[in-house]
Amino acid sequence: MLRKNPSGFSPVVSEKAFIDPTAIICGRVVIEDNVFVGPYAVIRADEVDAEGNMEPIIIGRDSNIQDGVVIHSKSGAAVTIGQRTSIAHRSIIHGPCEVGDDVFIGFNSVVFRSHIHNGSVIRHNCVIDGLDLPPQMHVPPMTNIGPEFDLSAIEQVPPDYSSFSESVVAANHWLVEGYKKLANEL
């Protein structure tokens, strides 16, 4: 469901994207080409800052927002999801936040007040809050990263995880095409 927010902004969604009918896309949201938004996802840009301003939530081309994901922002801060990025089932991305290109964020993970740089892999049940993650970092399952976390405790992304991330993007790209054909949109 696409809907306007109280400030009057409506989502801008590429005709080449697929939004599941159960998903809610609200307000100042931009969804680029070949994006898959799965069942029950919520992408909501509706809060404003003290001056009444709101930055957009942008989902970059070829990315996928899987089932039950929530993307929102505090006080109208920007949220950007890069290209070819996967946000897995039931994760929460809460702005202010930037997620780079070719990033994988695993099931049930939370990202808040952080910049996740290109090529990083965050496994399931992780929390990244208030610390930027350099490029190509691998965050093991159930890791909590905050401002005092020593990033030298985690390693670079192993090659097998990079290829896994690429396969998830490819699978979801195929789903965009498949669901659009079912809906007679292609």
TrEMBL record:
Pfam families: Hexapep. Keywords: Lyase. The keyword Zinc does not apply. Transmembrane segments: none annotated. Its EC number is 4.2.1.1. InterPro entries: Gamma-CA, Hexapep, Trimer_LpxA-like_sf. GO terms for molecular function: carbonate dehydratase activity. PANTHER family: CARBON DIOXIDE CONCENTRATING MECHANISM PROTEIN CCMM, CARBOXYSOME ASSEMBLY PROTEIN CCMM. This is Carbonic anhydrase. It comes from Amphritea japonica ATCC BAA-1530.
